[in-house]
Amino acid sequence: MSRGAGIARLGPRLRTVRHREGTTVFVAWRDLRFARGRFVLIGSVVALITLLVGFLAGLTGGLAAQNVSAVLGLPGNRLVLQQPSSGQPSFGESTIGREARVGWQTAAGVDEVVPVGIVQGRATAGAASGSGSASGSGGSAVGVALFGLPAAGAGTGTVAALAPDRDDEVGLSAAAASDLGVGVGDRVTITGTTYRVASVGGDAWYSHTPVLAMTSDAWAAADRRLGGDGAPTVLAVSGSPDWDAVAARTHTSAASHLGSLTALETFKSEVGSLALMIAMLFGVSALVVGAFFTVWTMQRAGDVAVLKALGASTGSLVRDALGQALVVLVVGIGVGTAAVVGLGALAGGALPFLLSPLTTLVPAVAMAALGLAGAAVALRTVTAADPLTALGSNR
Amino acid sequence: MITLDDVTLTFPDGDRRVTAVDHVSLSARAGVVTGITGPSGSGKSSLLAVAATLIRPDSGRVLIGGGAGSAEVDAAALSPGEATALRRERIGIVFQQSNLLPSLTAREQVLVMEHLGGGRRGAVTRARVDELLDAVGLSGQGDKRPAQLSGGQRQRVAIARSLVHEPDVLLVDEPTSALDQERGAAIMELIARLTHERGTATMLVTHDMVHRDVLDELVTVVDGRLTDGVAVRAA
Fold first, then answer.
1. Domain-embedded: residue B214
2. Containing domain of residue B41, as a range?
3. What ipTM was assigned to the predicted interfaces of this complex?
4. Of A72, A203, B15, B63, which one is least surrounded by beta carbons within 10 A?
5. Do strands B201-205 and B169-173 pair parallel, antiparallel, or not at all (unpaired)?
């Protein structure tokens, strides 16, 4: 017998009703009101987990930004690093020789190659007190990441925008200027050489130190004074060449900006640990919500059987149960997310905390999805409830 | 009207099958209370479960409706989903225990029938529910939850719930088993009165013959078979 034929036999009145079926959570709403203590408890747990996840995500984002925002702000479509004979490429170990640089510049499909030098150093506010002095006269030394790029106009991006026009000038990220206590027109000293601050601005960090941008020549000189060979460490390449073939030919690796972050050892370990904690909290969240709704639904198994015996469709009972879980999750996650935003705004001044949709809305949506997945486990009780047990049951 | 036509129902019992209902043919007419009695384990609850479409018989037909403006349906041939829809629309059930939902007030216990399909139909209004609660003797009790009602009051709510969608058939399973004699008599009289007023075909399972005088017809089941059928009172 076909389903349609079966329904047709039930008469016009019944057909009308089946067509009008919609979604409702009639019983679920009243359960929420009736057992509010239990639902407030689970909602509070969800809110607390959301707060933990959101705060960890914000801290992870903040720490990641302090680690890699300058790398993400470099120009080009891909970043090219030296490929060591063994192991993975590393920003700290990479040196791009002339041969590799020319290899990329002359490769078919390459539009632009911007050589970038990156090295960690120290800077002091004020002019050097004497030739060869490592410190200026204006205060204590501040750790900075020295980025060397061609004169302003080479490429786009946060760091490229800081690059000065002249070899005796530097551009400071906002944090570097703040740490040094200098502004545009002031002097800073790096490895005994004094530079004029040509620009200040942008949120650029590398390996938890604020960025100081120089011209390529000034950077090469500073790198030599720091013990390096003055060769650029990264190429920011634009265009659409055969990336793998050129990289293999020049003994380099080419990766997207995001992909190249694995070449930062501190980023991998730091973000990896925090991401693992977030993933574990997501798992805990799904387990807690799933366990709660499993126990709750098992307690209601008798009621579910009665409702089925009275004529409730399994679909409507499933919607009822999921709707109930969704209400608890939305309220709990909403409260938790509001707390994250509030506390994050307060903590932002003292901690590296990133408050953005990525660290608030994305974890919230993931929490809701995992919570619903956990609650869905409890649906087995709903679908398996036998209405026959309502007859003669002693409840 | 409901008609069980040559219905047989068996259950597995180890490596054999036990016959719970054995070729039973039985009708309950509109406006008539048909009692089904018999000793414990005789098959009367199984008969009611078949009539309620909660279990499909091995053979036979379960015909529901067929009166004026009501199409006749063989419930035994429906899919589980269609049988559920049939219960929702055309069958009222009063359980042995009231089986009320603890989170709902008396009024909501009745209103819930409006939502069983997953959406509101608009046929059952609050005024109509209150009218029905008045009819079962629960005036002013609509806001009380099951824990605030006596056993008899809970059973009255269950009766109101079973009738709110104006079913063709009312199936009642031992409605007085949890009540004292006085309250039991009141419930039986209420069921009989509503059956006569509303023209519902009522099939009532009972082993308590104290209240037999409210039944219009009475049949006895022994070992899954009907042994006799008598009119105990003019309908």
1. yes
2. 2-230
3. 0.91
4. B15
5. parallel
